[in-house]
Amino acid sequence: MRPIPTVDDFTSDPVVQRYDDMVNPPGLTNFLGAVQVDHDVTAVRSVNFAPVSHGDTVTGALWVDGRLFRSYGEPVTIQWRPDRVVRSARLGDLVIESTTVTPPGVDGVVVDVAVTNTSGIERMVRLGLSVASTVTQAGPWRAPEPPSEPNALAPLPDRVALLGRAETTAAVSVQGLDADGARAGDRSLEVDVSLAPGERYRFGYVHVVGTEAEGALAAYDSVVADVPGQVAAARALWDDTLRAAFTPGNDQFSGHVPTLETSNDALRRLYWWGVLGVIWFRRDSPASHLGRVYDTLMPRYWQTTTFIWDFSLSSMIHALLDPEPMRRQIEHWIALDIHRHFGTEWQTGGPAGYWYSVNDYAMIRLVRDYVRWNGEPAFLDVQLAAHDGPAKPVAEHVADWATAWEGFRKAHALADYGGIDNLLECVSSYVHEVASLNAANVWCMRAAADVAALRGDGGLADDLRTKADALVPHVGELYVEGQGFWHARQPDGRLLPVRHCYDFTTVGMTIAADLPERQREEMVAFFVRELRTPSWMRALSPYDDDAAFSVRPDHQWNGAYPAWPADAARSLIELGRPDVAADWLSGLARTANQGPPGQAHFVEEAAEPLNGGAVKSPPQFPYLIDWSCSSAGAWSALVVEGFFGVRPEVDGSLTVRSRLAAVDPDARLRNLRAGGRLVDVGAEGVVDAQ
Q1: What are the angstrom distances between the C-alpha of 249 and each of 245, 253, 375, 586, 593?
Q2: In the chain, what is the straight-line distance between the N-terminal and C-terminal CA atoms, in Å?
Q3: Using an 8 Å Cβ cutoff, are 78 and 25 in contact?
Q4: Which of 177, 271, 286, 604 could bridge across to 182 with cysteines, CB 3.0–4.6 Å?
Q5: HSE of 371, CA atoms in CB hemisphere, 13 A
Q6: How far is CA 583 from the centre of its chain?
Q7: What are the tens digits of pLDDT across the range 124-140?
Q8: Does the pTM exceed 0.90?
């Protein structure tokens, strides 16, 4: 197996769907914007390239012989690859296939369509696409769906195309065909074709958006002149990007990720899945206030928004692959009030959303990972001002975040993290004093103590470590004895048992060494009994009293957010059971069969698996789940930090505590940047250093 993947290595399993099945159609990106294909052979939706937004409008729906294709009720087969989506269907004696790509450097999408006559006689067929346009240049985009507005559509006299003009801005869309003899109507594009027996006919549909007509028309003309060439260029873009990501000194990223040599196919697949799932969200949009950024969801919801929480879950990959934009993002968040929002809208750099209580923990993870993987302790001395005070060293911000929990205490010793929207959003009992973030506070104070010690402030370091040790037994007060899960304490002192994975993952990843062996064993037993499934996991146990509260599968009984299985496996390792994590890998790897990780996947009881993999949850109400999510980097961290056990520290030291015996004792990481130097790592530790 080659050490650097190509687009072929990520080809998804085919998904077969009928009209409006609860299937999440795949998305595409060229790092400028995003597009989603629709429940059709040719239609696309969510064609959004900041600063121009189309909202979630569907356009390009197929018509055959004057009838809407969807109305025939024929199934469509969809297969994704990083550079393209291939769709196919049979309608009587016609086979219809399409290849959809987002061309490099273009604010738009192309669909290359082929129709084959499989009958033994000549066949006349009318092929049409219906056109809709709702582009706008309204901003910032601070709602789940990007904005849109009514457009006026009109045929262009010198092209087989329609121009959509926004009512209140200069934004436009251009949609047309490259077919000879085609025609544009008021809201449609059509071509009549005579097909001999066995004959194949192709045509291309091009959809470009822009801030003004002249530039959009120029881009359209360039693309429509060679649609097959655009398809080839999309593959070249993605293969070049993947090659660069794994190559030291490449010209696309400010860093790189290590190559993995292993005979364990599941380990390799999950590692690559995590890397791809971060690259997928790279945005080099000229509309960005921050330069290169990384989105959080795509292609339908919260475009142009970066969530602190999700970014931190891929922290290791950001630090290795692209540390320069990571540092800019950290510096930007330091200057904002992280106790009032969940992220930033990158067209303006302004805050987005309400407060997520994980933010202090997330920020410390980000700073620590940037410093320790890149060997950049000088960053801790950089003077930066927060929203409410003068400039001070980053190290002091770390200490502030580490002790911010003290300001959230109320009647009890632990921090009260507020209501449902501040935590998991769809688990009504997981509120106020939760084990996860209070355990994380222990870890945060110890991490801040390491920073203080590095800077020579032994007094602060000792104080933080003393506070951390004192907090551990108070976290223990929330444990449900003998059961392996935890309570959430309410303001009136009531203890509500909550069987949620976020306690299992976070407690295990932050304070496993502080727990008695009996408790660690009980936690593992609970996870295996109530949360683990063959190819995924339940975020909430179906035995929990709150399991009927919501069907949103990222945090409920019917599925899980994409970082939770990866972090659960990390927790199993830290709790002393790498064998349990290793036994789970082959099932988890089957789920890496539908493109980058979705915002949630269904467990097997909630939806039939796809070729043995847990299927992505759908975008429709009441699920409201996007096709992909940037926290995918947690899967790569499971491999590097979990099974390889690589531990760089902020002081530049490096230790390796291998658990590779459970998966592949001969596995190697090549060109891993740890502490600012390149090393190769195996089961015996660092095997080569540069």
Answers
A1: 10, 8, 16, 33, 30
A2: 25
A3: yes
A4: 177
A5: 26
A6: 25
A7: 999 999 999 999 998 89
A8: yes
Q: How far apart are CA 15 and CA 384, in angstroms?
A: 49
Structure confidence by residue, pLDDT tens digits, 562-579: 999 999 999 999 999 999
Nearest in space to 312 (alpha carbons), one of 364, 271, 357: 364
The DSSP result for 476-518, as a single string, is HTTB-TTTS-EEEE-TTS-EEEE-BHHHHHHHHHHHGGGS-HH
Residue 2: inside a domain, yes or no?
no
In a domain, 265, yes or no: yes
415 part of a folded domain: no
Residues 213 and 314 in one domain: no
Q: Does some domain include residue 416?
A: no
Q: Are both 138 and 277 inside the same structural domain?
A: no
Mean of pLDDT values over 13-24: 90
The predicted structure's pLDDT at residue 690: 64
Residue 198's closest CA among 124, 119, 123, 97? 119
Whether residue 161 is found in the same domain as residue 309: no
CATH number at residue 218: 2.70.98.10
284-307 residue pLDDT tens? 999 999 999 999 999 999 999 999
Query: pLDDT category, 688, cuts 50, 70, 90?
Result: confident
| Buried b or exposed e, range 12-25, using 16+ CB within 10 angstroms | beebebeeeeebbb
- Kindly give, in sequence order, each residue whose CB lies less than 8 Å from that of residue 356, ignoring residues fewer than 6 positions away: 307, 308, 309, 342, 362, 422, 423
- Calpha distance 590→576 (Å, rounded): 25
**Size (the chain), residues:** 690
Nearest to 52 by CA among 129, 151, 130, 131: 151
Q: What share of the chain is helix, strand, coil (3-state, %, to 5)?
A: 35, 25, 40
Q: pLDDT per residue over 76-128, tens digit each?
A: 999 999 999 999 999 999 999 999 999 999 999 999 999 999 999 999 999 99
Same domain for 45 and 13: yes
d(Cα 38, Cα 677) in Å, to the nearest integer?
46
Alpha-carbon separation of residue 596 from 103, 471, 616 (angstroms) = 20, 38, 10
Single out the residue in 183, 204, 238 at which a domain terminates.
Answer: 238
In this prediction, residue 138 carries a pLDDT of 86
Helix pair 265-279, 578-590: axis angle to 10 deg: 70
Same domain, yes or no: 455 and 308: yes
Give me the domain span that covers residue 515: 253-409+422-577+586-605+614-688
Q: In the numeric block, which tokens belong to residue 669?
A: 């990481």
CATH of the domain at 344: 1.50.10.10
Got the DSSP string for 257-280?
--EEE-S-HHHHHHHHHHHHHHHT
The two tokens of residue 182 are 């085609």
Q: How far apart are alpha carbons 379 and 369 in whole angstroms?
A: 12
| Cβ(325)–Cβ(374) below 8 Å | no
Q: Are residues 154 and 203 in the same domain?
A: yes
Q: Which of 205, 238, 271 is the last residue of a domain?
A: 238
Q: How confident is the model at residue 209 (pLDDT cuts 50, 70, 90)?
A: very high
CB 59 within 8 A of CB 207: yes
Is the Cβ–Cβ distance between 348 and 139 less than 8 Å?
Answer: yes
Q: Which helix (H) or strand (E) holds 259?
A: strand 259-261
Q: How far apart are CA 208 and CA 223, in angstroms?
A: 9
- DSSP character at residue 13: P
Count of domains for the chain? 2
| Residue from 621, 623, 624, 674 nearest 645 by CA | 674
Regarding whether 331 and 455 lie in a shared domain, the answer is yes
Question: Phi and psi (nearest 5°) for 10?
Answer: -110, 10
pLDDT digits (tens, 9 = 90+) for 311-334: 999 999 999 999 999 999 999 999
Neighbour count for residue 510 (Cβ, 10 Å): 24
